[in-house]
Amino acid sequence: MRHLVITASKFEKMCDRLARIVGKKFKPDCIVGIGRGGLVPAVYVSDRLGIRKLYAFKIYYYKGEKRGKKPVVSQRPPLRFVCGNVLIVDDIADTGATLLTAKKLLKKHSKNIRTATLHYKPHSRIKPDFFVQETEKWVVYPYQTTEFGKK
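Predicted structure:
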């Protein structure tokens, strides 16, 4: 099987597990979700950990249907963003480029930054500090059904 299809129920359980993993070792002051895919897990994790400060980055790696040479940042947290312990959340660390970009931009505003994803691919340029499952497969999340022709 080339694809790993995550049901809504499985997705929620994975978000719960990610929050537990993070909560045992790190106390974030704020969470930054990477849009689009990391926004939904970021909301779940912030809720489970009781973190009210939730921000969004919009970073994309594609132009049309082609992958670009580097990620493009089209939306970032406020200019006066200040947060002690930052948790960056994305759905998957595939190439790792979006996590690395977010981390680099946030280093200007915070010294303690950790990363968390539901899935991690071993070929990623960054290994998240916290993740639920390692896989080589193409992961399809419940909020991606339209992208894959399912409704």
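Summary: The helical segments are 8-25, 39-49, 97-106.
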